[in-house]
Amino acid sequence: MPWPLLVPAVVGLAFLVLPLLGLLLRAPWSTLGTRLVQGEVLEALRLSLVSATAATALSVVFGVPLAWLLARTEFPGRAVVRALVTVPLVLPPVVGGVALLLVLGRRGLIGAQLDAWFGVTIPFTSVAVVLAQVFVAMPFLVISVEGALRGADRRYEEAAATLGAGRVTVFRRVTLPMVLPGVVAGAVLCWARALGEFGATITFAGNFPGTTRTMPLAVYLAMESDPQAAIVLSVVLLAVSVAVLAGLRERWVGAV
Amino acid sequence: MRPPALDARLVVRRGAFALDIAVTAAPGEVVALLGPNGAGKTTALRALAGLEPLADGGRLLVDGADLSRHAVERRPIGVVFQDYLLFAHLSALDNVAFGPRCRGVSKHAARREAAGWLERVGLAELAEARPRRLSGGQAQRVALARALAARPRLLLLDEPLAALDAHTRLTVRAELRRHLAAFDGAAVLVTHDPLDAMVLADRLVVVEDGAVVQEGAPAEVARRPRTDYVARLVGLNLYRGTAAGGTVRVGGAGGVALAAAGEEPVTGEVFVAFSPGAVALFRSRPDGSPRNVWPAVVSGFERHGDLVRVHLDGALPAMADITAPALADLDLEPGRRLWASVKAAETRAYPA
Predict the structure, then answer these.
(1) Which residue of A has its CA nearest to B45?
(2) Contact (Cβ atoms closer than 8 angstroms) between residue B158 and residue B190
(3) Where do the structural domains in chain B lie, given as residue ranges?
(4) Do B97 and B149 contact (CB within 8 A), yes or no?
(5) Which value does ipTM take for this structure?
(6) Which residues in A89-114 are b (16+ Cβ under 10 Å) and which e?
(7) Per CATH, is A51-211 categorized as 3.40.50.150?
(8) What are the mean pLDDT values of chain B's consecutive 10-residue runs (352 residues total)?
(9) Å from B175 to nearest chain A CA?
(10) Number of CB pairs < 8 Å for A and B?
(11) What is the pTM of this model?
């Protein structure tokens, strides 16, 4: 074994695994059961799962066509559009939250109109939680699906066209099934990112129990008042993440 | 009068490469585009299908209708691709049903239609199989059924047998011939294999460097090649020369005068062709007729069926087929000088 590679590899692995190990070692296992069934924990967990799933669904509905546009069409400024799509990946989520507030807030560019015409306000609601998650998580899906589309053999789409399929039919019946592993991989990444979302959520949606307090927010809050509770919440998040990852591992690895 | 099933002039420009060929076909006729790799055959096929845009001057009429501006999916043109491109996520049946579905046929009816096509190509029992489970020959037949099920007026086949092993090729070639005969529209197939072209096609169009260099019935092309490429394909020695008084001068200055037999008397620019089997080799200059004998240098040899094919350099580069005992008698090795001759009666001269 070449130690110049082995040593840093082991250090890196330890760095990734030890914190998780610490979490498991310090968890109050004896009182875990009773703490878990407390209303607030279940509430936060339910909100997290529902909002992350909704955010993933929205990301698929809008992100897959966006990825198709980037991978399959030529239009002026496409490079710029792609760069814009990836901005949320590098933007601090808190900044994303501020930006969402400026657009969709009660005095925001669009938010003001929504309020005036429909009496709808988005900030500090569960909808805002989902939107914040979509903002930070959708780029993962778009990037993943675009990569899959670029890697897909376009001659199959040509074959479908010679059989009389228009572009929408080709997309639905040939392209989508071909890139499905990429879509699944992207959706998993997207869901995981949405589940862990903190900065944009707390800025744009606030921290209200039952409506906007997701698991990460609950963990952060608990750290101030009841560290034991924070550990329990963290263990739950860890378990849910690992379970989802393990469940989709086969396809995930096969795709990328 | 009925318009030709296909009347096309395929003009495609891509960087330094330019394709400009005319292809016509009568209803039921099978035309083979034959040519070396990179000649533009596949580009021509893609242009017919609409996968490659036609440049100015291009024309595409199928059954008299101008299709050159139609999108790919609006052309009644079926394609059997070289590696078949069956949809991996659909069963053989659903692959074949794809075309009818796109025509707006209900799922049930499309499947029934597809089952009929699979039956016709002898694969009814593999209807539910995914493409990856099919052998090369089976996949080829599914691809053919899929293309035909879309009810094309023009069928295109890109190297339909190239991906198959020698044994499968034999049976699939015979079946394909039968299916092409049953198809009432025109068919254009692209191949670099002269045998496939001769067996499957009613007419050959030989393409080199983006242009048609020869076309005609397979027998005609095989008998009277007009380029070195075609001559090599059909296994003939071919020379261009000037004919006068029954003698053809080939090989330019320092060339050779051949007494050549033409089906009609020829003068001026002509081709002379003869088979390697007609060439005799001698260690010393043979007596008798002074004509049709020339000095040659052996550049190499190889097995060719039961015979040995000897490659000759010199004034008249040629191939000669001799028997193994003759090889031993002549004590052949590369660089050996000897004499070659061919009987006038075994040569064919025809106008260039």
Answers:
(1) A162
(2) yes
(3) 6-223, 235-351
(4) yes
(5) 0.84
(6) eebebeebbebbbeebbeebeebeee
(7) no
(8) 87 90 94 91 94 92 92 95 94 97 94 96 94 93 96 94 88 92 94 90 94 93 91 90 82 70 76 90 79 87 89 89 87 87 86 84
(9) 22
(10) 58
(11) 0.84
